[in-house]
Amino acid sequence: MVAQIKPICGLDRVKLSAVIPLETPFSLYVFPTTFCNFKCIYCAHSLGLKEMKKRYNFEAQNMDIETFNLIVEQVKKFPQKLKLLSLTGQGEPLINRNISKMVEIAKKNDIAERIEIITNGSLLNKEVAKSLIEAGLDTIRISIQGLSAEKYKNICNYQLNFDEFINNIRYFFENKKQCNVFVKIMDIALEEGESEKFYDIFSKISDRMYIEKCKPVYDGVKYPEEAYNSIDRYGRAHIRRKVCPLPFYMLAIFPNGDVVPCDSIYKPIVLGNVHRDTLFDIWNGNKLKEFWLMQLKNMRQKNEKCAKCCAPDDVAHPEDELDSEAENILKRLTK
After folding, report:
1. Crossing angle between the packed helical segments 126-135 and 99-108, to the nearest 10 degrees
2. What's the CATH fold of domain 24-334?
3. Cis omega before residue 216 (within 30°)?
4. pTM attached to this predicted model
């Protein structure tokens, strides 16, 4: 079998404007950790924790298993299952030693159609692979940062045994059972002419592979000039979006239990905390509704955090576009 060249995101999408408001969010992003062992040049972690605290009020933390159990119990109060539970966030999820246990708990409680992690794969040894597969992980998305140890050192400031790294991915793929293995790389992590080498390496050890376009995700990080063009990370051109669709179909939870309306680093608004509020009440509460209305009224730029974020023009899909239906959705929400 040869891997498909397709984006590693979920491709089975509905027209979002037609189904808002949702009774249950489609996606829940739970951040097992906000620590990372990489300092990739296009990531906020390249700035260091002191600067991240200053710019984003960012704290490096691990989520404890008690908080995760509380989240799972709260998710069960929604009328439908989540489409996606993503155990990922602003860090490397395999740093949290409970990551396989989290997958297992979520799977046993049947709270999501699909459970995934996004990882840099550097900690994916045979033992970790076995535990994730046996826990029932549905998708592992591996972010590749170069095609040599030297490139990893330059991009991530990390000393990687590249051959061992590839062998660990191969081991996972050959023993994956139900799990899909998706790999992607940023275009700026490839040397000129290396695209075919990327496809050649991963064509028989992944289910899907893709080269993404680098976008200016993090304020304060220097990006090449071409990162600011009007295409998304999947290479699709579009008119710049006014309404961010993410908060209309997802919630995200930081390790301390803070609940936010998207998975960005910025925390545009803290909607509550799972230790004192329930996810069901947050999703149906006035604080989130007011945030939705702000988006639909073309006031996103007035939120200091949203104004810095490129997510609507980076990770949003054509099916998620809300600008053309903003007025109708606004009427629907304010009846």
Report:
1. 10
2. TIM Barrel (3.20.20)
3. no
4. 0.95
